[in-house]
Design goal:
This is ABC transporter permease. With about 270 residues, the chain is mainly α. The protein has one domain. The protein is about 75% helix and about 0% strand. The protein has 12 helices and no strands.
């Protein structure tokens, strides 16, 4: 009952501040516009599938911004203001606070983003008179997994940071690390340890490493829906692998937060 109470509290916070409604309106407008514009004929008179219309790119950016906005201060902000001590005066454990904060944020965010993901095919169908292909459902799955990961990262870092500013700074730092440092490490190792004639194509271990970060998994997984590759693929280049990477990374920040937060000094 204690965890359920916390989940309801954090979910109602987004309702009281209207933040979930703002996020839902944002995604409905943006994705609805993308669906409508994608349904327009090309200069050849062809109708493009919805999965190439840019939903994945817009979601990749907007989900990061909205989850950080709603999640970075959920624990760190309460800790900074002192309200976390009041909350812990009730029969709630610290782990329940972190888990309740995550579940109470991810639910409204998933609902808001799902509204946008529904608006896109509706607008697309109204303009083209046809439904989007089955690949769009796979795209929806990737966007929702991306949302869960980004929310877990925001809430997890919020539980590890002492202030809201440090939490959002650390979260952006993690994303920048995935974007620029993750793939740079194996590239440098290959450059320094392999002779030039063996550096291209990169060794298989380096290719596997490059696909193990969540940002790359989301980008490559969704791009495969728009531009299917030709020829056989390695296991680490397939859609199920990219989905599994996102699912695992969604667990990592929360696992760290649940382990470390009970040990912190408030």
């Amino acid at each position: 009952m204690s965890l359920r109470t916390l989940v309801e509290k954090y979910a109602l916070d987004t309702h009281r501040t209207k933040s979930a409604w703002v996020v839902a309106a944002l995604f409905v407008i943006v994705f609805g516009f993308i669906g409508w514009s994608t349904g327009g004929p090309t200069y050849r008179g062809e109708i493009r599938p919805l999965v190439v219309g840019g939903v994945q790119n817009s979601a990749g950016i907007l989900v990061v911004l909205t989850t950080l906005a709603l999640g970075h201060g959920v624990v760190a902000g309460a800790r900074e203001s002192g309200s976390l001590r009041v909350l812990l005066a009730y029969p709630h454990s610290r782990r329940e606070v972190v888990l309740g904060a995550f579940l109470g944020r991810v639910g409204p965010l998933l609902a808001a983003i799902s509204a946008g993901l529904l608006a896109a095919p509706i607008a697309y169908s109204l303009r083209t008179g046809q439904l989007p292909g089955a690949k769009y459902l796979t795209l929806v799955g990737f966007v929702l997994l991306w949302t869960v990961f980004c929310t877990a990262l925001a809430v997890g870092i919020s539980a590890l940071a002492s202030t809201g500013r440090r939490a959002i700074g650390a979260a952006f730092g993690v994303f920048l690390g995935f974007l620029f440092v993750w793939d740079w490490l194996p590239t440098e190792i290959v450059r320094r340890t392999y002779p030039p004639e063996q550096q291209r194509p990169r060794p298989e271990w380096a290719q596997l490493w490059a696909n193990l970060d969540p940002v790359t998994a989301y980008q490559r997984g969704t791009s495969m829906l728009s531009y299917p590759p030709e020829g056989p693929l390695a296991v680490y280049e397939t859609l199920p692998f990219f989905a599994a990477v996102l699912a695992v990374w969604a667990v990592v920040p929360m696992a760290l937060a649940l382990w470390w937060f009970p040990r912190t000094d408030l």
